[in-house]
Amino acid sequence: MRQMAVSGALLVFLGGCATNPVTGKREFTLVSQGQEVEMGKGAAEQVAQTIGLYDNPAVQQYVEQLGKRIAAHSERPELPWSFKVVDDPVVNAFALPGGFIFITRGLMAHMNTEAQLVAVIGHEIGHVTAKHSVQQISRAQAAQMLLIGGMLASDTVAALGDVGMAGLSVLFLKYGRDAERQADDLGFKYSVNEGYDVREMPGVFATLKRVSEASGGERLPNWLSSHPSPDERIDRIQKKIAETNPPAGKDEKNAYLAMTDGLTYGANPRQGFFDNGVFKQPDMRFQVTMPSGWKATNLSTAVVAEAPGGNAAFQLTLAKEASPGAALEKFATNQAVSAVEKVDVPVHGLQASSARFQAKTEGGAVGGLVTFVSHEGKTFQLMGLAPANAFAGQEAIFKQVQGSFGPLTDPAALNVQPARLKVITAPSAMTLAELVAKQGPGLSAEKVAILNQMEPATRLTAGQKVKVIQGTVRESSTNAVAAR
């Protein structure tokens, strides 16, 4: 039986070959183009829901048109290419299977010419045209098939359409360094084909290195996380430029700077921010105090917090039901939930319904306390979870957090605004640091230097355009609440 099972898997391997559109070589694949597109489409929808798209139609249209123009002349023009800007301050870009490309507004803020943005977009297009994610998924499927042998002879092929659809796992595919180098080379080729100056590319890698060093590599995924070192990439591209001597192309710097003028910079406090352990949401006009010593994170659809050691967690999100009572009733119908016991947890005079419960998870049984609260026409779900044997020791904390939920009335918090990029003109010859000093106290010359791919001591000419930051910069949507 074992020999027959392996033979069945080998038959699938032999039949699963296709020509790579970039290399022209035959390669092993278990994913059709239709399945690839479906994977990417499903993951792209979750990106929009979990990270969120940047709310600026002009910026979205600019990136979409730019990306589609490049993709139309790539090796896979028939794909349903999509290019979106996500509302994330981290400098990042990623490609999903099937041609779904995402650029963060943080990356856009740190590019200085359209040619540089094209190099990044071209790199991500290269991952798709060279089928890097398809290759990895196929390898993973092949390994799984060998493990379970002949049982997959009929079931695997039917299930392939669901590969990668369980959450955002395809976002975290780690390409090998050879794949990253190939994507760089493809980005180089696409840039030249579109008439852009590839001499701008080394500046991209140098800036990414400076950003990574300045941030300490605290947040992932980062565009540098699985790539060759920036120094190596700079050296490779410079050698490629010397060898090919491409024509001097366009950089479209002025057009690009005009597009970035007014771009949100740093974390957007309108989406919620932490203030000395209190999470404040000005648009929804509420606040809630996080547990002392817990690590809390503001996501686009939820606020989550984790206890030290990971033995308890808290989540705040919106419920679909119109009232707390209806929301609790719907919650109790979940098949994984049992032993629902209604309890009284007062919430600042707001209409609320609460219950203790038990639930079954892959990690074992958990105990929880859930409260649904009505505020400003919305129903909020506040839920604390802990292993069943540890719930009693955490319940008082859960009640304290849920009881802290209430209206946000502080005018300063209600009116808070994000920092934004502002493109200004040097009035006369001076250093970048001198220009920054003229903008008022609190603005970091080093931060502005990185944004402009300069040094603080770089001398500007009269009339030279420079990006500066206006407003208070908020660096992160994560808050480690100090014990107090």
Task: Give a written overview of the molecule.
The chain is α+β, with helices and mostly antiparallel strands and 484 residues long. The protein has 3 domains: 2-260, no CATH class; 269-413, Mog1/PsbP, alpha/beta/alpha sandwich (Protein Transport Mog1p, Chain A); 418-479. Helices cover 39% and strands 23% of the residues. It has helices at 2-15, 33-50, 57-71, 105-110, 114-129, 132-148, 152-159, 177-193, 201-215, 230-244, 253-260, 324-332, 391-404, 411-414, 432-438, 445-451; strands spanning 17-19, 26-28, 82-86, 93-96, 100-104, 264-265, 273-275, 278-281, 286-289, 295-298, 302-306, 313-319, 337-343, 352-361, 364-375, 378-387, 406-407, 419-425, 430-431, 459-460, 465-470, 478-480. Strands 13-14-15-16-12-11-10-22 form an 8-stranded antiparallel β-sheet. Strands 7-8-9-17 form a 4-stranded antiparallel β-sheet. It is globular. It starts with a helix and ends with a strand.
Give the secondary structure arrangement, pairings included.
Blueprint: H1 2-15, E1 17-19, E2 26-28, H2 33-50, H3 57-71, E3 82-86, E4 93-96, E5 100-104, H4 105-110, H5 114-129, H6 132-148, H7 152-159, H8 177-193, H9 201-215, H10 230-244, H11 253-260, E6 264-265, E7 273-275, E8 278-281, E9 286-289, E10 295-298, E11 302-306, E12 313-319, H12 324-332, E13 337-343, E14 352-361, E15 364-375, E16 378-387, H13 391-404, E17 406-407, H14 411-414, E18 419-425, E19 430-431, H15 432-438, H16 445-451, E20 459-460, E21 465-470, E22 478-480
